[in-house]
Amino acid sequence: MPEGPLVRKFHHLVSPFVGQQVVKTGGSSKKLQPASLQCLWLQDTQVGPALWWWWLPGIL
Predict the structure, then answer these.
(1) Can you tell which superkingdom this protein's organism belongs to (predicted)?
(2) Cα separation of 38 and 54, whole Å?
(3) Residue 10 CA to chain centroid, in angstroms?
(4) pTM
(5) How far is CA 58 from CA 22, 23, 42, in A?
(6) End-to-end CA distance of the chain
(7) Is residue 26 included in any domain, yes or no?
(8) What is the pLDDT of residues 23-45, one digit of tens each?
């Protein structure tokens, strides 16, 4: 698992929002549409080869 100041900063910024619904997104990405994350529930965050956002399926 990666370590370092960027991972610690990401965890510090995101961890307060675990368990909450995503209501606003922004930014840009070639791999996914940020708007597709709206209405999902942030269940957990993990940092690895790719950044994964896990959500509770069926809760929209």
Answers:
(1) Eukaryota
(2) 13
(3) 10
(4) 0.49
(5) 14, 16, 13
(6) 30
(7) yes
(8) 888 777 777 788 888 888 888 77
